């Protein structure tokens, strides 16, 4: 199930869906759908900023932050990404 979050500038809105080997951030602007793919094997850190959002840090130091101002939503995203990533790391799929 996709969860709705905003980018750091709070301009774009994304539906974020976790999958076995990563997650997808999807946005629609003026009818144009854009999907960004984040593979767990490229992620170095997942940082939770309680009550604000989740920061994704890749091995190349590229950072991406997703926000949701609703109470508890940042925790939901962090838990979804962290638990799915941990499951992937514990499997033989990586």
Care to describe what's here?
- Strand 5 (43-49) and strand 6 form a beta hairpin.
- This protein is of the alpha+beta class and 94 residues long.
- The protein has one domain (3-90): Roll (PH-domain like), CATH 2.30.29.30.
- The chain is built from one helix and seven strands; from the N terminus they run βββββββα.
- The chain has a seven-stranded antiparallel beta sheet, with helices on one face.
- The two termini are 23 Å apart.
**Overall number of structural domains:** 1
Structural class: alpha+beta
Order of helices and strands: EEEEEEEH
- What is the fourth-level CATH superfamily? Pleckstrin-homology domain (PH domain)/Phosphotyrosine-binding domain (PTB)
The biggest beta sheet, please? 7 strands, antiparallel
CATH class: Mainly Beta
As a whole number of angstroms, the C-alpha radius of gyration is 13 Å
Helix share, percent: 10-25%
Low-pLDDT segments: none
Query: How far apart lie the N and C ends?
Result: 23 Å
Summarize it.
With 94 residues, the protein is an alpha+beta fold. The protein has one helix spanning 73-90, and strands at 3-7, 13-19, 22-29, 32-39, 43-49, 53-58, 63-67. A hairpin with a 5-residue loop joins strand 1 and strand 2.
What structural keywords apply?
seven-stranded antiparallel β-sheet, 94 residues, alpha+beta, PH-domain like, 1 helix, 19% helix
């Amino acid at each position: 199930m996709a969860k709705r979050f905003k980018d750091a500038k709070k301009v774009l809105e994304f539906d974020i869906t976790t999958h076995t080997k990563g997650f997808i951030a999807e946005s629609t602007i003026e009818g144009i759908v854009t999907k960004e793919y984040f593979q767990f094997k490229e992620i170095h850190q997942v940082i939770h900023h309680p009550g604000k959002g989740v920061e994704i840090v890749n091995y190349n130091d590229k950072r991406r932050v997703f926000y949701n101002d609703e109470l508890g939503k940042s925790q939901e995203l962090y838990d979804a990404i962290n638990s799915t990533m941990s499951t992937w790391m514990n499997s033989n799929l990586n």
